[in-house]
Amino acid sequence: MNKKLDIYLAGPRGFCAGVERAILMVQEAIKKYGAPVYVRHEIVHNKYVVDNLKSEGAIFIEELSEIDQIDRPVIFSAHGVPKSVPQEAKHLNLLYYDATCPLVSKIHREVENFERKNLPVILIGHRNHPEVIGTMGQTSKDIFLVESKDDVKKLPIHKDQKIAYVTQTTLSVDDTKEIINEIKLHFKNYLEPKKKDICYATTNRQEAVKFIAKNCDYFFVLGSKNSSNSLRLVEVAKNYGSKYSILVDDVESFDPSIISNNSKIGITASASSPEILVKKILERIGQYFELNIIESNFEREDVHFKIPQKLKEAV
Predict the structure, then answer these.
(1) Is 204 within a domain?
(2) Do 59 and 138 belong to one domain?
(3) Is the separation of the CB atoms in 209 and 270 below 8 Å?
(4) In a shared domain, residues 121 and 90
(5) Exposed, middle or buried: residue 2 (CB in 10 Å: 0-12, 13-18, 19+)?
(6) CA torsion angle for 72, 53, 203, 222 (degrees, to 10)?
């Protein structure tokens, strides 16, 4: 008889509103215009999602210059793009749709606002992440990336200079808090974002992991290696008490034999990972163990972002 295993499912988990909107935009573009539809960069950082969209008729590219059929539409990913990208699309006479998450777009507008006020902007984020590249590409004025507390001290800005700061949406709340405190200690005069820049879904998923991590010997985060919000969830699970915190980027090759008997398991799916992956990993673990599923009580998210009217016409 299989050994019994306690499985703590984090909630909320899985797709956020920005991810759902971006995926739907690609699917509706394929319905409206037929295949292929080009997508600049992975629409969201998840291999399962990207592979599914490829099978439906999406072609993923990194630069607009890779587009062979210029009469086909192109969609910009949920992470956002520098202003130079839509400018290039117009120059190439391409039909394009921007699937940037509205919460990322909010940060873009903040950066533009700070530019109008002639304020140097500090961006808390991870170098080379597409969201960071997109945000830094919203202004031709001074914008400085900081990844740690130490980076704040090295900034080439006088302490008396008035500054503004924004953050990448998918960072750890705890990490960002530390860096924001350092900015406030270092600079006397600063302008904060009107609302918190870390998105509701990132915060909710991290809080859900914190709530159950202390109960878990193993914590499995379903997400991709290049997904910032997935990697942050792995860190949060480890920092809040799970003995082992593991990113699972390919459920099909996941080996449940790493789990020892009588272990307590935590599972979540990042904001860019579909709920079906949770079902798949439970099925795999269920081949080895009898599962006792413990589902967290949580408030359902009711945030929804509309897709552009031109794509809605295809529905």
Answers:
(1) yes
(2) no
(3) no
(4) no
(5) exposed
(6) -150
Q: What is the pLDDT along the chain (315 residues), one digit of tens a residue?
A: 468 899 999 999 999 999 999 999 999 999 999 999 999 999 999 999 999 999 999 999 999 999 999 999 999 999 999 999 999 999 999 999 999 999 999 999 999 999 999 999 999 999 999 999 999 999 999 999 999 999 999 999 999 999 999 999 998 888 899 999 999 999 999 999 877 788 899 999 999 999 999 999 999 999 999 999 999 999 999 999 999 999 999 999 999 989 987 789 999 999 999 999 999 999 999 999 999 999 988 888 999 999 999 887 755
Annotated catalytic residue within 115, 131, 192, 313: 131
Tell which of 101, 120, 155 closes a domain.
101
Residue 302 lies in a domain: no
Residue 304 lies in a domain: no
Q: Do 170 and 127 belong together in one domain?
A: yes
- Given 165, 191, 217, the domain boundary residue is 191
CATH of the domain at 61: 3.40.50.11270
In the chain, how long is the greatest CA-to-CA distance?
A: 69
Q: Which residues contact 255 (CB under 8 A, 6 or more apart)?
A: none
Q: Burial level of 158, CB count in 10 A (0-12/13-18/19+)? A: exposed
Is residue 299 among the annotated active site residues? no
d(CA 227, CA 44): 8
Note down the domain range covering 118. Answer: 106-191
The number of CA neighbours under 13 Å toward the Cβ of 301 is: 21
Return the residue matching tokens 């037929």.
34
